[in-house]
Amino acid sequence: MSGAPAKPLLQRLDGIDRRWIFLLMALAVAGPILWVGVTGKTFPETPTPAVRGAFDAIDRLPEGSRVLISFDFDPASAGELQPMATAFVHHCAMRRLRIYGMTLWAPGSPIIGATLNDVIADDPWYRYGETWVDLGFQSGNEGVIKQMGADMAQTYPNDSRGTPVARIPMMQGVARSSDFDLLISISAGYPGSKEWVQYAVSPTLTSEKPLPFITGTTGVQTPQLIPYYPHQMAGILGAIKGAAEYETLVNDAARGTDASKPVPAKYQEAQRRMAPQLFAHVLMVGLILVGNVIFLFGRGKGARA
Length: 305
Hints:
This protein is an alpha/beta fold. 48% of the residues lie in helices and 11% in strands.
């Protein structure tokens, strides 16, 4: 007795159990993660002009320049933004720049110390109060930014450890936010990069010393900030892709002429995440195309019936 006639391929795909799709997605994500973990290799990245602008803004600063980094995010957005924070601090450390950490988000306060200690704890050039300081969290949203533009000491009378800023050597000569040589905002939303542009950067554009500004933001927030580039901001890192491009530039600079020089995994977090993201996106696009082919085939068959 002969079996039932085989169904056409598109018809079988139309009735496929969705669990097979879930399995394919799991393999598309897990496979590259395992490959990167075993081989230590990452996919090459081609930095965009906006990312290169952020890199150049730091790279051109002379040793000892003052850089204010505002960690305006929380653990929920750390997946996208923590690699940027680490890369920014790493680059500043390579250039021997004085780092001033702060945050407009209460949950961002522990992130400041954790990030700075992770990167510069073993660097003898960095001594607390002399070449780096943690100013911590200050409530008030954009009000803090406005006040920093007028009186830094009134905004931050003490650092995160309770030490009066008047007793911190590297705070000498910092009267207002315009006294910094570069402002960096790592932003997950409000208050964040947009408020820094509006209330800290824009008021200085007509002055003798405009405040240079770069930012790293989540993918959701990035489109809101693109209009400010390149006039109000010198560069922008958009989502994990921007972080991966920036890591590439920083790590290449760290290697110098020795391309085989190993880079610690903590400085490749964004690059390591690009492989699973790429394969997952390719799979999604493929499934969308197949779904549309099935739909069009079915519609055409119905019209002929």
